[in-house]
Amino acid sequence: MRALCWEGVDALAVRQVPDPELRNAHDMIVRVRRSATCGADLPLLGGRIPFLAAGDVLGHEFLGEVVEVGPEVRRHRLDDRVVVCAAVACGACWFCRQGLFACCDNGGAGAAATESAWGQPTGGCYGHPAPLGGFAGSHAEYVRVPYADVGAFTVPDPVSDDRAVFASDAAPTGWMGAELGEVGPGDVVAVWGAGAVGQLTARAALLRGAHRVIVIDRYDERLRMVDRHVGAEPLNYRYVDVPAELRERSGGRGPDVCVEAVGMEPEPPGLLGGRLGGRADRPLALREAVHACRKSGTVVVLGTWTGFVDTFPLGAVMNKGLTVRSARQHGQRWIPMLLDRMARDELRTEHLATHRLPLERGADGYALFRERADGCVRAVFAP
């Protein structure tokens, strides 16, 4: 089959790779219909995670049709249209039973490397090297889906492919951001980053009853989406003093919840390995979120980070009494609810698929996405 593979730092190529096969009774094979780029891919492309090898297949946000099922798969049948959670989880370990699917003990293959880097092993993810799962990615014609009854969900008929594909990762990540912040009626919420996750965090906050939601970015095309499709307030940081403006819009206190949905810079290489090293990240948006948040408020970290950060304002966290929360998305908890909201037209995401390309143009799609060129929010591939 054809797949979009990593060939080295910032180099991609479509090549022939072996077709996936069932490896155990709970697997199934999905023919990919849509597969989207994601900001979490950029550290991989830029060599920030050195375990990636030439020929590894990228991609983790996808939707497709079931073409083969293992004998123990109960929830899915041939030809079902399913969206697959980007996080791979067994559904049976202690963490999965608590709903913490991204912390699954059995969802990753390279426990030793992540335990060395982060103190404990974490769950797996499609399109990542062995220390982060070792599962071939979704930028391909076919994907093996382990623990199929746990991670795959049937898409309701009214929901289009371009809408449903975002239920794989971006939409549950956004909902998790609002939930970690315990957003409720009357809250003022600020979100740094107007990409797919930032926009869907803002939409989740509004659906949970927030009084005002402000999204901060510098790209006018994305900020127009925030106004037109999300219903939140856009704020371009090139033209205003962001903390002062946020105080003005929150009764002088600052937002109740501040969400960082930007993540680390895509370069330079070399933060995650058997030992962490290299230059530390500069969490510019996260620092601003901490300083802008009201006293005793909550800061949520949704952006992708792999190693150390530099100049984190811990003094502000302690002296202001802030709560800081973060996680990789536990999408299995929310995907059925999000698909229902999509079917009822409460959650619209297809506008995020700004560029629809064949798999053969995968390298072009990532170039647009990485440079945010031509108004690109997400490139979506249709093998």
Automatic annotation (TrEMBL):
Q: List the Pfam families.
A: ADH_N, ADH_zinc_N
* Names of required cofactors: Zn(2+)
For molecular function, the Gene Ontology terms on record are: metal ion binding
Keyword Zinc applies = yes
What is the originating organism of this protein? Micromonospora kangleipakensis
Listed InterPro entries: ADH-like_C, ADH-like_N, GroES-like_sf, NAD(P)-bd_dom_sf
Q: Ranges for the Alcohol dehydrogenase-like C-terminal domain?
A: 196-264
- The protein here is known as Threonine dehydrogenase-like Zn-dependent dehydrogenase
Q: Where is the Alcohol dehydrogenase-like N-terminal domain?
A: 25-150
Q: What keywords sit in the KW lines?
A: Metal-binding, Zinc
